[in-house]
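chain below, 417 aa
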Amino acid sequence: METAVKQSPAPAAKPSAAAYRNLAMATIGFGLTFWAWNLISPLSGAFKERLGLSSFEQSLLVAVPVLVGSLGRIPAGALTDKYGARLMFPLVSALTIIPVLLLIPAKDSYGAMLAVGFLLGLGGTTFAIGIPLVNSWFPPAQRGAALGVFGMGMGGVALSGYFTPRIAEHGDNLPFLVVAGALVVYAALAAVLVSDHPDRKVPTDSLAHRLGEAGRLRVTWELSMLYAIGFGGIVAFGVYLPTYLKTWYDLSPTDAGTKAAGFALVTVIFRPIGGWLSDRIHPALVTSAALGLAALMAIVQAFDPKLAPGGTIALLCMAAGLGTSSGSIFALVSQVTPQPKVGSVTGIVGAMGGLGGFVPPLVMGAIYSAKGSYSIGFMLLSDLALAGCVYAYGRMRNIRRDERPSGGSGPGRSGTG
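prediction:
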């Protein structure tokens, strides 16, 4: 009798040197453009005093780049599907230099600052460029960790919070000149070192058609809702935490920026942990646990504990939960989205995440102006995080790995890149 030979499974594909080069370039570019995107926030206290702004006007000034950068991810993601990150990364990085330099003549006018803040939102769109680039270069079993590493580029918010006010101490215009110079160097390097995967599938249909298809996927909006809570919370605290700490705990702008940078740093560290865990556990379970932790810590902070140690512990644990969830959610995006549509879906989901960060600073500013307290704002955050926790566990854990859920045009496997 012929004996059947049991074949061992093929070893998992290993990422190439080019994959790691593109991951490094995407992460650096994401970090630099996010620093540019967040230039106004660490200096918002100085702008408030210089221009005589109310709390709401200060919040609006901080929130405008977030809004534009969030909505801009939708076309940026679709354009990346079409033209590739090799063109889009250096192009968007170079264009971001313009509003960074325009902050210099605009800083003495509130209207001009709002207009430049609108243009500065361009820096927030690179997220939707990097996700499809990294996704295409790494095999499915390693995408969660790779996307988590790329997500560490949001540490640009921490860099901005820490370095921008310190650089400003040596000259009002110096932070803008330093960031503009860094973007010039990066754009030149990206034009040489960023490369699209040779097997990248270029869509032939129109941008509107691709966005329409992505918008018809049920999972696009489910993930958008979760990301609006997770990443939206990160963005909201990244841009508003300096103001909150300065107003409520009476910290100096430098101390407030330093502590806000610590919050952002924790989210940066835990984002790849969320992706790494999602390569081993269903990302919906990771998301549910992470948002549950964020909800609990928001309740603690709503009771206005002293900054040391209660408030610091609550805020840092909240940062860990939000950072973990933002990594696990995009691990799920990479598993359930066909490769040619990753940019389009990423654009929509990323936009909703950014929009999730646009509203809270306005709400927090308005609540403080009306009530003289931030507690209501933290309770609202806890309610949203708890809702996301329950939904991720109850619905999203039933989505099988590498399978598109109902609402799409049919079953399909996630592209391997």
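The two ends are 42 Å apart (CA to CA). The longest helix spans residues 218-248.
thats it, cya
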